[in-house]
Amino acid sequence: TAKEISRDSYIVYTPDLEQRASKNLLLQSELRNALKQDQLAIHYQPVVTGDGKLVAAEALLRWYHPEHGYISPAEFIPYAERNGFINTLSEWVITDVCRFINDAIKHGYAVPRISINISAKQFNQVDFVSSFLETISQLKVSATQLQLELTEHLLLTELSIIQSKFEELRRAGVAIAIDDFGTGYSSLSYLQHLPLAQLKIDQSFVQQIGCGAKDDAIITTIVSMAHALELEVVAEGVETLNQRNFLINTGCDRFQGYLWSKPVAEAEFVELLSAGAVIPATAIALKKTEQ
Ligand code: C2E
Ligand code: MG
Ligand code: MG
Ligand code: MG
Predict the structure, then answer these.
(1) Shortest-distance ligand to the CA of residue 261
(2) From ligand 4's centre to the CA of 180, what distance in Å?
(3) Model pTM?
């Protein structure tokens, strides 16, 4: 009967569900080992000005599993959030970024501000700010070396709570960016009342540049709104010269994307630091064909 069919239809186990269940088991047992067995690394992606000057970088977590290969943070971060492992993981990220900053400074590199992603779930814990500031002070890294990236999901939390946390970070010298801007819930009045440094336009908008007047208008609007609020605008996921040129024309301040550089391992990143600038990939390709 129809009733039976509809009852059955939502307990059908698709291969997809099975895959997800086994993936969860894999993550559960393996993520803890990953930390102990040195399978995690931080890669750094340059943030540049329109002419390629390297002015900041984003720290992105990488997991190389000995059997399963590369596992994307987009996959295991949400899992870690659900399973209470995010604090341990994040503590490792913060510590490793601080270790890198100290190392690089000791070797004479001018290290720009490094951005660290923090999940809303973790940020919402009452003691997040104090324990973060405590950690970096113990590791002797200046708060002005760091920026935190938070997504709009955070803005679902009561304004006064976020406000006081942001202000504490800001007073200490930590910059704050709203990541993946435009994809989530965002109240303009929230943005106005928070001590933010940057809005990062989500890459889904950037990748639609040139595909239609409406897509282009969204970006133009985000940029002018951000500037009205005196925030810096960073475009993420810039892959083509066409996207870059459009973004420069709209007045976008900072750029991040494969056009300049993928996230790279420490050794490669310090080379970029000593060069001080990153040449767009297409310019390199053009040069090669000229030769
Ligand atoms: P996100 O913070 O928005 O980071 C930007 C993502 O875009 C990164 O993906 C980066 O590799 C990718 N990307 C950069 N430029 C381009 C481009 O030109 N084209 C394309 N297609 N992609 C580009 P990734 O590294 O896979 O990270 C995915 C997400 O995982 C991050 O998004 C962030 O939300 C989360 N994540 C990564 N590391 C951490 C971490 O240490 N802690 C937390 N809580 N989340 C993290
Ligand atoms: Mg980010
Ligand atoms: Mg983003
Ligand atoms: Mg993202």
Answers:
(1) 1
(2) 6
(3) 0.91
